Amino acid sequence: MSPRLRPIVSFIFALAVVAGAAPHARAAAGLTLTTPFPGVTTSPDSRVSFDLEVDAREAGRIDLELTGVPASWSASLHGGGNVVGAVLLNGSDPAEVRLDVDVPADATGSTRFVVVASDAETRVELPIDVRVEAEATGEVSLATDFPSLRGASSTTFTFNLKVRNDKAEDLTYTGTGQGPVGWTVNVQPTGQSQAVSATVTAGAEAGLTVTVDAPDSTPAGTYPIQVVATVGTEQLEQTLEVEITGSYSLELSTPTQVLSARGPSGSVTEQTFTVTNTGTAPVTGVEVTASRRTTGRSSSSPPRSRPSRPIRRSTSRRASRRRATPSPATTSSPCARTARRPRPTRRSGSRSRHRSWEP
Q1: Model-level pTM?
Q2: Which candidate, 108, 170, 267, 332, has a CA 20 to 30 Å from the CA of 144?
Q3: In this model, does residue 18 exceed pLDDT 60?
C-alpha cells in the first residue's frame, strides 16, 4: 500500500467502527394513527372519549403524547385499564387506545389539540377538535314497548325497559320499583341477576328488567307499578300497569264436610252439596254431574261362591250292618260282654255308616 493511500483507508475504517458502535433504532414502516370521530360537540363540565387505533406494518414500540391541551382541561390516554404513554405493535394487529378529555365548566368555543405517535424516525399527528356549546347537552330517557300486562294473580309479570344515554359521557344507572301493599317488585339491569347498577355508554342503550309478583288472593282489577331509574344524576320515572284477571278455583263440600252417605236399600237418600268459589274472579257456567262409582264388587250382582266339588259314589255297596262273629273266648265265658261297637267311619262319596251288632 502506498504511503499516500494509508491515511484514507485508516479514516474509512474509523468511520465504520463509529457507525457500528452507535445504536440503531429501526423505524416502523406504515405507521398510522386514526379515530372514527376526530371532531365532536359537547357541553361545559362534561367528558368526551375518543377511540384511537395505532397500527404499523412492522413490529416495534410507538410512543404516544398529547400537545396543545389547554391548562384548565384534562386529557389522558388509557389502555388495558391504565394510563399509557406508549404501545408495542406486533406488525399485524393494531393497538387500541382511549382518549378521555374533561371539559371544564367555563369552557366555550372550539379547542384543538393533537395526539402524536412516533418512533425514532417516524412521527404521525392526529388533530382533535372539541366544540363546547351550552345547548349541546344530551338527554337520557326511559321507555318500554309494553307498559301494561295482563294475567292471573299467580303469574309473574316481566317488563323490559330501555335506558337511552344521548350524553357525551358514560353514565351509571340503577332502578327501583314500588307496587301495592303485599306485592313484590324487583328492578335489575338486564342480564345482571346479581348486579344492582350498571353502565350505559354514551350514545347507546341499556336495559332494566322489572319483575312483578302479586299475592294469590288479589282481586281482579288494574294496579299501577311505579319504576324510578337513576341515570347519572338524573331520575326518570315510568308508570307500568298490571291487570289481574283473577284466579279460578272451585271447592265441592257438604255441610258436614263428609263426602259419603248411607241409607236402607230400596229407599232414596238425599245429600246436600255446597260449591264454593275460592278464587278471586267470577266463574260462570258451572255444571254439577254425578256418576256411579265403580268398585271391585257390584251390589246388584250375587255374592261369589266357591264351586262345589262333585260327589263320587262307590260302585259297590257294603253291608250297612255287620254281624259280629263270637270268638271262642266269648262263647265259653259265662261273663261274655257285648261286642264293642266299632267307630263309625266315613268314606269319601259314601253316606253309609258302620254300626255294630248287639247280640
Answers
A1: 0.44
A2: 170
A3: no
Mean pLDDT of the chain: 78
Cβ atoms within 10 Å of 181's Cβ, excluding its own: 5
- Of the listed ranges 135-149, 161-175, 259-273, 329-343, the one predicted with least confidence: 329-343
Q: What angle do CA 260, 262, 265 make, to 5 degrees?
A: 145
SS3 label, residue 321: strand
Superfamily of domain 140-244: Immunoglobulins (2.60.40.10)
Q: Where are the domains positioned within the chain?
A: 32-136, 140-244
Is the Cα dihedral 121, 28, 82, 69 positive or negative?
positive
**Alpha helices (H) in the chain, listed in sequence order:** 6-21, 328-332
Band of residue 191 on the pLDDT scale cut at 50, 70, 90 = confident
CATH number of 32-136: 2.60.40.10
The percent of residues in the chain predicted with pLDDT above 70, rounded, is 70
SS3 percent helix, strand, coil of the chain, rounded to 5, is: 5, 40, 55
**Element housing 240 (H / E):** strand 234-244
- Residue 242's SS3 state is strand
* Cβ(118)–Cβ(62) below 8 Å: yes
- Interstrand relation of 123-132 and 39-42 (parallel, antiparallel or unpaired): parallel
Q: To 10 degrees, the CA torsion angle through 82, 83, 87, 88?
A: -30
Q: Is the pLDDT of residue 325 over 90?
A: no
Cell of 270: 238425599
Average pLDDT over residues 14-27: 35
What is the rounded CA–CA span in Å between residue 342 and residue 357? 9
